[in-house]
Amino acid sequence: MNRKSLCVFFLYIFFSLVLPFHALAQCKDQLCRNLQNLLDAAVTDFREYRSSRIAVPDASIPAAKVPCQMTAWANNVPMLMCYAQVPEANAESWYLDALPSLQTLQPSWHFKIDSPAADHFVDAGLPDCQLPDREGPYLGHCPLHLQITKQNDGTAKIYLWMSSLSSPYLMNRPPDPPQKAAPAGVGASNGCDDLCQGLKKAFEARANSFDDLRAAKTNSATSEAAVTLAGATQCAIKTAAGVPHSDGAETQFVCYWMETSAPAGETRFRDLISRLQILVPSTWAIRQEDQFEELTGIKATAWLATAPDAKQEIALYLSNQSVGIHIRSSK
Length: 331
Prior knowledge:
six-stranded antiparallel β-sheet; 6 helices; 2 domains; 24% helix; alpha+beta; 331 residues
């Protein structure tokens, strides 16, 4: 037996032992059959889908159209992602169809199910698998994620993604670098990490229109921020468009994050909300709504916390994989 044949033989043995034999699963509907194709394709690194030889199947039911497409994690591991925003009842019907089908198709996998309030979060893989990091999965991470998050407008967002099971980029996670002792006053304090401390500094600086956070004192409309938020691509201090910095102008502390995927953007958005809800005073009004960008018309989800006099506000925006925070202050 030559080297190539031997390699194929061992791959066959490996996937025969690790993965269930799909032929034993009896699919009774199209969603189940499409999910079976998705899971089978993950075994071969989605080669057919990535080469466009075979069209990517959807994950739809009659009540909910859920298209799927190929993408990749930051560490280059291919991933098939399905996404849709549909009425809540239709999303719930989809979940009640999809989850049992996946459990039937992968009986050896462990399904970690969390359903707080009306939402659903499912991660699945071999027993004791861990959740992937932001950069992507390593060996031992759960390859499947399913999520239903209900919105204030009566709709719900459906997320389903499956990572490759045989990508050459899948490897053991490298050990974390040794931690350096942080100087006094730096790092987490009383459970408040760097992002928490950055948010607190930015929020407190609204009292003087963020003057203390300006890296350079300037009269221009935009200046670099001396305090940045962990993971953010850019942070800046801005005055109202075309208005020089003055006591009468609205001033904003602005930061942006560009995540690797829409689900990662959603995770960042929810994490920031949980932190801001603790930070804002109880007298502030909090609401969430859909907004449209004036120039492009792109839809964004906005979480807003507004002071009683409306002169101060935190606005958090989510649009696909982009997240932005605007802390506004006017005199």
